[in-house]
Amino acid sequence: MTASAVSRPPRLLVLSGSARTGSFNRELVELAALKARNLGAETTSVDLRALALPVLDADLLQAQGMPAGALRLRDWMAQHDGVLLSSPEYNALPSPLFINAFDWLSLVQAEGEQPSGTAATAGKPVGLMAASPGALGGIRALPIVRTYLSTNFAMVVVPEQLALPLADQQLHAQRPDLERLAKPELDAVLDRLVASVVRQARWRISA
Ligand SMILES: Cc1cc2nc3c(=O)[nH]c(=O)nc-3n(C[C@H](O)[C@H](O)[C@H](O)COP(=O)(O)O)c2cc1C
Fold first, then answer.
1. Which atom of ligand 1 approaches the CA of 132 most closely?
2. What residues contact residue 150 under an 8 Å CB cut-off, 6+ apart?
3. From the CA of 65, how far away is ligand 1's center (Å)?
4. Residue ranges making up the domain that contains 193
5. pTM over 0.70
6. How far apart are CA 146 and CA 150, in angstroms?
7. DSSP for residue 20
8. In a domain? residue 4
9. Torsions phi, psi of 175, nearest 5?
10. Does ligand 1 have an atom closer than 6 angstroms to the CB of 98?
11. Into how many domains does the chain fold?
12. Dihedral sign, Cα of residue 29, residue 34, residue 40, residue 46
């Protein structure tokens, strides 16, 4: 079957690793989501904070079982064909909100028809972004996110990635009508990243 013969639009989960109102990463990933919708994808934006996951604690898992938020994340992953993710960089690492949520996800076991956490992620494309008001844009954390998702979660991390520096100047918070980043060369990278994820998701659902 060719990509054009796919019977339904690819569904992308839109995630930010930020736990901050007014997040630059949320704004960047929503711009990516808009571009994905312009390519025919359906997007679902979710806030990882809504999962209310405690810091990973094996004793708590033993005593209380898997938190509902981890099962919900598994369900979100199972219901989507790919992911758009933008995470802040904290001291050169990905944000604890993102890592903690996915560490919980990695522990979710299959039950009945429901896949395990890593079965729900396996083979699905993900596009990586980071945004920072700093000069490096969070680029030091992106290789870590790439390794984390491609190895333990078997995700297809697309080659294109975007670390957006000076995000406070480059995002058009007050101009959503612009639908683009201020610097055309960075906007072109974002276009390629989104197209790659949408293309991979289409291939996946048509295979
Ligand atoms: C604990 C902490 C560590 C940070 N470390 C970095 C860093 O290593 N590199 C960087 O570019 N910005 C760093 N920042 C600044 C964040 O990029 C900035 O807070 C950004 O707004 C976070 O993204 P958000 O707007 O999506 O929440 C750090 C911020 C905090 C709170």
1. 17
2. 156, 157
3. 33
4. 11-206
5. yes
6. 6
7. S
8. no
9. -130, 60
10. no
11. 1
12. positive
